[in-house]
Amino acid sequence: RLGEWFLYLKENSAYDNTRIIIVSDHGDATLKITKTALPFILDKFNPLLMVKDFNASGSLTTDTAFMSNADVPSIALKNLTENPVNPFTGNYISTDDKLHPLYIAVSGTSRLDPADAVQIKLDPRQDYYVHDNIFNSENWEKAEQ
Which among 38, 45, 119, 132 is placed 20 to 30 Å from 63, CA to CA? Predict the structure, then answer.
């Protein structure tokens, strides 16, 4: 379906002047594509993030730069406005938090009664910090040592 949509944009002269961002909320927790010595499936922390910028051309490239879903507002607003601000919170939209390692909650969630209620229980003994390339095991550090 995405191919059909891209073709429609091209046929209507809208593809080149459109920034397209496709993002998932999480990676796949059942596939073990990335092999590491870490005690969890790394791929569940690797959500899809695809960006086609304005007037971009050429073949697809893979970038292993440290990214998260929180980068999407910065990507969407890049070169469109100076000092972008979230209209609901008034907070400046930036990627400054990535200057420090990101806390990854491996410890996860638990279901409560009723069935649709979820409780987040963080356990630093199970959780990690990660920085830079997530595919490098050396960039992962236990939250509590």
Answer: 38
Who contacts 94 (Cβ-Cβ below 8 Å, separation ≥6)? Answer: 74
CB within 8 Å of 77: residues ≥ 6 apart: 84, 93
Is there a contact between 72 and 84 (Cβ–Cβ < 8 Å)? no
Q: What pLDDT digit, counting tens, does each position of 8-45 carry?
A: 999 999 999 999 999 998 888 777 777 888 888 888 88
User: pLDDT tens-digit profile of 80-102?
Assistant: 999 999 999 999 999 998 889 99
Q: Tell me the C-alpha distance between 84 and 112, whole Å.
A: 38
For 55, residues 6+ apart whose C-beta sits below 8 A from its C-beta are 16, 17
